[in-house]
Structure formats: C-alpha cells, structure tokens
C-alpha cells in the first residue's frame, strides 16, 4: 500500500489572489501530489494550503512552494492579525497512511536542511521534530513574531536549527515539523473589544490552565469589526470542538457578549464533526457506519 503524508504549509499572504495562485501552482506541478484545499484569510493575511501524496513528492512540493513564496512575499511589508515569522511561516508533515511519525520527522529534517542550504532561509524545527524541548511549541518559536526574531536571531537561545543566524532579507524564517492532525478553529463575537476575546482565549488555552491540547488567542477581524477567539485544537479526541465552543459561549456571556458564528480553517476529520453531532443531537447508540458517505 502507498505511503501517504499530508502537508499543511501556511504562507504569509491572504489578500493578493494572483500571488497565492502562483505559489499554489508550484504544488500542482508536482506529480504524485494532490492539492486538497486552499484557504486564504484577508484579515490574518495568511493562506493555509493542504496537499497529500507520497513522502518524497510531498517534500518536493513543499520546497517548491517555499521557494516561490520567498520570491513573491516581502516580510518587510507584511501586516496581518496572525503571528508569523516568515513568508512560508510553517510547514508541518502529518502521517496519514502507512507512514510513521518517525518518518515524518525525518522528512521534516530533510526539508529543513534543504530550505536552509538552497534558499538561505533560517529554519526552526517544531513539535515532534523539535531539537530543543522549548521549540516543541510553535508559539515559543514565534515569540516576538518576524520583527522580534529579526532583532534576536543571533542570540544563542534563538539561533535556528538549520541555516544562518540571520533573517532572509525578504522571506524571514520558516518553521518545519511533524505533528498529529490539528484543527484550526475560530469563534467570532458580537463585539469590537479585542480585550474580551483575549480574556476568553486565556480561559481555554492550556498554557493558562485551560483545556489540554488547546492553544488560543484573541484577535481583531478588521474587515468585519468583530473580535475573534482563534484556536488551534491539537487533539480533537482529547478536547472536542463542542467543549471549547460551549466554554467560549459561556465565557462570552459573562461579558455580555454573544457568539455570532464559528469557522473551521482548512480540512477537518469527519469524526470531529460526528462528535459534535453526537453531543448536540444527544444521539443514542450512534455509529459512524450510519453515515451514508462513509459507506460509499
């Protein structure tokens, strides 16, 4: 059976459609890779790209994407709500079929070294591929974002794992790693007070004593003039979507605020949605085999 790996690069461009398409075209050109999703966000000024394929083909597509992003995105001019340190901000590999996490870690290291050597972009390894325990967490690497890292990259504790201890003139730095499936989940509030979103985010994030496997922050969605709790669900079986949603709704009510909607960025496992349906519909003895599409 084929080995299948998923790759979900995040690039620091969510507004210029022609630039996004040109970068994504690099993935389309690689034989043996299937592009699954392209999800741009204007407010975050960021695009999440998802593709799958055999390991070597996926690595080739990821490098080509990173190289093109370095050509077309200038971090000196980039502004957006989402934390970032580079044109291609992060490149995670996720095992899907007949592939171990160890193989994804090896793949990540090979790509990180190639990006550093051929493109001159400093690379940090994270999650299961982290070489330093503190760098397992992506927020730790992004501390200070592009502007802060530019000033501190020469410090011993912030030197990259691969490449020179200096930012690429336009592409900044890149994070590469291997991890389990992550759900990017945002909850929008009917307020323009970002302080409320930040307080709610702190109530659910693991680092502040909230739910395990949850990272969250409060941001402002300028185009809609609403505050948002933006969330990374690192393990949807350990902490399900519905639990986080209900807590955000409850916390928002304490501040006289309502939830006006939520969104999933990129792809999501069907089981994560079935868990939500099971909770809200109070299904009895439900089995995923009852889902029509899963039987076709």
TrEMBL record:
<dbReference type="InterPro" id="IPR004227">
    <property type="entry name" value="Formiminotransferase_cat"/>
</dbReference>
<dbReference type="InterPro" id="IPR013802">
    <property type="entry name" value="Formiminotransferase_C"/>
</dbReference>
<dbReference type="InterPro" id="IPR012886">
    <property type="entry name" value="Formiminotransferase_N"/>
</dbReference>
<dbReference type="InterPro" id="IPR037064">
    <property type="entry name" value="Formiminotransferase_N_sf"/>
</dbReference>
<keyword id="KW-0808">Transferase</keyword>
<dbReference type="InterPro" id="IPR022384">
    <property type="entry name" value="FormiminoTrfase_cat_dom_sf"/>
</dbReference>
<dbReference type="GO" id="GO:0005542">
    <property type="term" value="F:folic acid binding"/>
</dbReference>
<dbReference type="Pfam" id="PF02971">
    <property type="entry name" value="FTCD"/>
</dbReference>
<dbReference type="GO" id="GO:0005737">
    <property type="term" value="C:cytoplasm"/>
</dbReference>
<keyword id="KW-0369">Histidine metabolism</keyword>
<feature type="domain" description="Formiminotransferase C-terminal subdomain">
    <location>
        <begin position="181"/>
        <end position="295"/>
    </location>
</feature>
<dbReference type="GO" id="GO:0019556">
    <property type="term" value="P:L-histidine catabolic process to glutamate and formamide"/>
</dbReference>
<dbReference type="InterPro" id="IPR051623">
    <property type="entry name" value="FTCD"/>
</dbReference>
<protein>
    <recommendedName>
        <fullName>glutamate formimidoyltransferase</fullName>
        <ecNumber>2.1.2.5</ecNumber>
    </recommendedName>
</protein>
<dbReference type="InterPro" id="IPR037070">
    <property type="entry name" value="Formiminotransferase_C_sf"/>
</dbReference>
<dbReference type="GO" id="GO:0019557">
    <property type="term" value="P:L-histidine catabolic process to glutamate and formate"/>
</dbReference>
<dbReference type="Pfam" id="PF07837">
    <property type="entry name" value="FTCD_N"/>
</dbReference>
<keyword id="KW-0290">Folate-binding</keyword>
<keyword id="KW-0963">Cytoplasm</keyword>
<dbReference type="GO" id="GO:0030409">
    <property type="term" value="F:glutamate formimidoyltransferase activity"/>
</dbReference>
<comment type="pathway">
    <text>Amino-acid degradation; L-histidine degradation into L-glutamate; L-glutamate from N-formimidoyl-L-glutamate (transferase route): step 1/1.</text>
</comment>
<feature type="domain" description="Formiminotransferase N-terminal subdomain">
    <location>
        <begin position="3"/>
        <end position="180"/>
    </location>
</feature>
């Amino acid at each position: 059976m084929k080995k299948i790996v998923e790759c979900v690069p995040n690039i620091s461009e969510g507004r210029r459609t022609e630039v996004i398409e040109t970068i994504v075209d690099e993935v389309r050109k690689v034989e043996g890779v299937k592009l699954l999703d392209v999800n741009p966000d204007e407010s975050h000024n960021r695009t999440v790209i998802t593709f799958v394929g055999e390991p070597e083909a996926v690595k080739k597509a990821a490098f080509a994407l990173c190289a093109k992003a370095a050509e077309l995105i200038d971090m000196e001019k980039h502004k957006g709500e989402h934390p970032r340190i580079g044109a291609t901000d992060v490149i995670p590999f996720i095992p899907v079929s007949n592939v171990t996490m160890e193989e994804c870690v090896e793949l990540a290291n090979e790509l990180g070294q190639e990006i550093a050597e051929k493109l001159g972009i400093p690379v940090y390894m994270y999650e299961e591929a982290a070489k330093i325990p503190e760098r397992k967490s992506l927020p730790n690497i992004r501390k200070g974002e592009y502007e802060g890292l530019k000033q501190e990259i020469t410090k011993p504790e912030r030197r990259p794992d691969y490449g020179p201890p200096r930012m690429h003139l336009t592409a900044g730095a890149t994070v590469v790693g291997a991890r389990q499936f992550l759900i990017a989940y945002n909850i929008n509030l009917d307020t323009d007070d970002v302080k409320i979103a930040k307080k709610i985010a702190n109530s659910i994030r693991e680092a502040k004593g909230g739910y395990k496997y949850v990272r969250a922050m409060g941001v402002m969605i300028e185009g809609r003039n609403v505050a948002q709790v933006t969330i990374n669900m690192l393990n949807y079986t350990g902490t399900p979507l519905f639990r986080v949603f209900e807590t955000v709704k409850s916390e928002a009510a304490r501040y006289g605020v309502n939830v006006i909607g939520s969104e999933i960025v990129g792809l999501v496992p069907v089981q994560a949605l079935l868990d939500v349906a099971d909770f809200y519909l109070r299904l009895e003895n439900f089995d995923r085999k009852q889902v029509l599409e899963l039987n076709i």
